[in-house]
Amino acid sequence: MAEPTVNAEINLDQLKKIIAEYSQQKWPLIPLLQRIQNEFGYIPSQSIPILAGALRLFPSQVQGVISFYEQLYTRPRGKNIVRVCRGTACHVRGGKTILKLVKKNLGIEEGETTPDMEYTLDTVACIGVCALAPNVVIGDRVFGHMNPKKIEHLMKNRNR
Ligand code: FES
């Protein structure tokens, strides 16, 4: 399935205003990246050279920091984030099958977003509720004790 475009135009004036807000900070890169992500929903590729220039860094240095932090995204994210746990407890209780079924239902792979921008699929190492394994999180809601039947039902009814 095709992914949503990542080259959408962004408001450059808005971007420059955000950069200016952080110009007096000593180590502004990470807070600035977080702020840009909050503003645009992700870190648009067009912002990287502008940001690098303003901070006197190479674009590759900015890109390196973005790549290092899992919570920074260079692609648009869906309205709903679906997280499938791949931690040990979830894995031994069928997490792999749950992930396979979520991928099949959404028609996307891990890290991808549906073309309608409704869902982004992520996997996580452990969400901290191993007793309920295997787990899936949609938005901020945890769905525990998943099995193929339950996940199929959850996916089918996700828009209701
Ligand atoms: S391993 Fe899945 S919640 Fe801990």
Between the first and last Cα atoms, what is the distance in angstroms? 23 Å
- Give the neighbour order of strands across the main sheet: 2-1-3-4
Radius of gyration: 18 Å
Q: What is the tally of helical segments?
A: 7
**Poorly predicted sequence stretches spanning 5 or more consecutive residues:** 1-5
- Sheet-strand content, in percent, reads 5-15%
Largest sheet: 4 strands, mixed
- Overall mean pLDDT stands at 91
**Ligand kinds:** FE2/S2 (inorganic) cluster
> How many extended strands?
4
Shape descriptor reads elongated
Helix/strand/pairing category: alpha+beta
Order of helices and strands: HHHHEHHEEEH
Helix content: 40-55%
Features:
single chain, 160 residues, alpha+beta, 4 strands, 11% strand, binds FE2/S2 (inorganic) cluster
Structure commentary:
The structure is a single chain. The chain has 160 residues and is α+β, with helices and mostly antiparallel strands. Helices cover 42% and strands 11% of the residues. The chain contains seven helices and four strands; from the N terminus they run H-H-H-H-E-H-H-E-E-E-H. A hairpin with a 2-residue loop joins strand 3 (136-138) and strand 4 (141-143). Helix 1 packs parallel to helix 3 and helix 6 packs parallel to helix 7. The longest helix has 12 residues, at 29-40. It starts with 11 loop residues before the first helix and ends with a helix. The structure holds FE2/S2 (inorganic) cluster. The site of FE2/S2 (inorganic) cluster has 12 residues, from helix 5.
